[in-house]
Design goal:
Number of helices of chain A: 5
Oligomer: heterodimer
Largest sheet of chain B: 8 strands, antiparallel
Largest interface: A-B, 27 and 25 residues
Number of strands of chain A: 13
Number of strands of chain B: 13
């Protein structure tokens, strides 16, 4: 019996070995490079016909704003959208992944996706990674069973709520919701309240800023209002544009090409061998 | 001859006092205080809870007190340190009265005194573990300021401590305006205190509102706010997602 030299494939699942090493290094003062976070204000609320999601548009890398106008409301299904706070890569990857899983599931079942499906797929994935996938999500949508709004925390717990906020600006936004939310809001009242909550996050939290994105989902369809409000325009831009000082006088122009143009063969893809 | 050498801590750079006399953590704490300027003076609100860690130990703690004729002090943080500050201020006001010169310490002066006390204590690594709100009115001039336990001080039209900074100040920034009437001011403070009641775990539904004007200071009887829990979504939250919560 020869000794088996076959490489056993890893047993699957995430290997947490390096996490202990990282913690030890952090204690000694060696910090990992700061990653792009969406220090954020994201909100959702249920109104009489469906769900309204809102988000700010600032992405930060430590103390620097790296993206002034990023998109935090991610597409999951035609009737389900998800706002993400936390590490930008994690929220993008996890929502993309579940979105494709939902599409395959739609093909398989021939039915419109349900919000609880997205919820379960997301929370199973996040729990599996024990909080290391740093994504805090507000998931909202309308399906055959009605409008739904859920929050999902990085460790995998979920809440089902009539109004929800997440991210660093969540307290500022929640202050607005707790004082002004009531049941049976109309579409315009709902949009106004969501915009107010996001603005409260933008102006009172340093991790949130720039513009307000809103997504309204109803039984009939969805409406994605990108940059619905722009309360932080660039001020002091010069109205007369930029004019450069008088150039040096041009006496003579002569252009000599450095080499002849290349002959382009019409047929055949450049990638093909023949 | 030194048989009993005094117990010097290893880090004797910090001074001759032994470690057991320095404040390391707070024990009995009060939560946020919210205050704003209105037409006739200052309005301040604080609940009456004293938490001992995660237990709500004391439910009848008055965290706002009048200082002299012109000022009102509210504190969050360690209650024993607040009581110590009240003794310092008592002495200050007493000495001021002994001059008997018709002049009295106004809120600006008391605020400056408190800032110096807090900052100097922090420099000795023995802080008074409080965030203070000092409001008052003297000769028609309204004044509202705050000092933190490390000595950060500033004055503004509306201030809050602790959780109030995150939950109440956004509301105040949006809805405060000059010359609020008394009713509007109370309504605005109650709005802030209600949000704090919903979202701060150490808040209790028993609060007092204090008002200070040229005439003097009055502090209301303790009362509670009405809360609303009847959202239909709370009645059966997992109707659409059976098994989750």
């Amino acid at each position: 019996m020869s000794k088996s030299v076959i490489e056993m494939p890893p047993k699957g699942g995430f290997s947490f070995d390096l996490c202990k090493r990282n913690e030890m290094l952090a204690k000694k003062g060696v910090n990992p490079p700061s990653f792009r976070k969406t220090g954020t204000t994201i909100v959702g609320l249920i109104f009489q016909d469906g769900v309204i999601l809102g988000a700010d548009t600032r992405a930060t890398e430590g103390p620097i704003v790296c993206d002034k106008n990023c998109e935090k409301i991610h597409y999951m299904a035609p009737n389900i959208y998800c706002c993400g706070a936390g590490t930008a890569a994690d929220t993008e990857a996890v929502t993309d992944m579940v979105s494709t899983q939902l599409q395959l599931h739609r093909y398989h079942t021939g039915r419109e996706s349900r919000v609880v499906t997205a919820l379960t797929l997301l929370k199973r994935h996040l729990f599996n990674y024990q909080g290391y996938v740093s994504a805090a999500l507000v998931l909202g949508g309308v399906d055959v069973t009605g409008p739904h709004l859920h929050t999902i925390y990085p460790h995998g717990s979920t809440d089902t709520l009539p109004f929800a906020t997440m991210g660093s600006g969540s307290l500022a936004a929640m202050a607005v919701f707790e004082s002004k939310y009531k049941e049976g809001l109309t579409r315009d009242e709902g949009i106004k309240l969501v915009a107010e909550a996001i603005c409260s996050g933008i102006f009172n939290d340093l991790g949130s800023g720039s513009n307000v994105d809103i997504c309204v989902i109803t039984k009939g369809g969805k409406e994605y209002l990108r940059n619905h409000l722009q309360p932080n325009p660039r001020t002091y831009t010069s109205s007369k544009g930029y004019s450069f000082p008088k150039k040096t006088e041009v006496l003579l122009t002569k252009i000599t090409p450095l080499k002849d143009k290349v002959e382009i063969i019409e047929e055949g893809d450049a990638m093909e061998e023949e | 001859m030194n048989f009993m050498a005094s117990k010097q801590p290893e880090n004797s750079l910090l001074g001759p006092e032994s470690d057991s006399q320095r404040t390391l953590y707070p024990y009995v704490t009060g939560t946020s205080v919210v205050a704003l300027k209105y037409k006739d003076g200052i309005l301040m609100a604080a609940d009456m809870g004293g938490s001992y860690g995660s237990t709500l130990r004391y439910k009848n703690v008055e965290r706002m007190k009048a200082i002299g004729k012109h000022s009102l002090l509210g504190a969050s943080g360690e209650i024993s340190d607040f009581q110590e500050i009240l003794r310092y201020l008592d002495e200050l006001i007493l000495y001021d009265n002994m001059w008997d010169d018709g002049n009295s310490l106004g809120p600006k002066e008391v605020h400056n005194y408190l800032t110096r006390v807090m900052y100097n204590r922090r420099n000795k690594f023995n802080p008074l573990w409080n965030s203070l709100v000092l409001g008052g009115i003297k000769n028609g001039q309204k004044y509202l300021g705050t000092v933190s336990m490390i000595g950060v001080n500033f004055e503004d039209n509306h201030v809050a401590t602790g959780f109030g900074n995150h939950l109440a100040r956004p509301i105040l920034r949006q809805e405060w305006h000059e010359n609020l009437s008394f009713e509007d001011g109370v309504r605005l403070l109650e709005k802030c205190m209600r949000v704090l009641l919903y979202r701060d775990r150490s808040a209790i539904n028993k609060l007092q509102i204090a008002k200070i004007t040229e005439e003097g200071m009055t502090i209301s009887q303790p009362y509670s706010l009405k809360t609303y829990w009847e959202f239909s979504a709370f009645e059966n939250p997992t109707q659409g997602a059976v098994g989750s919560w």
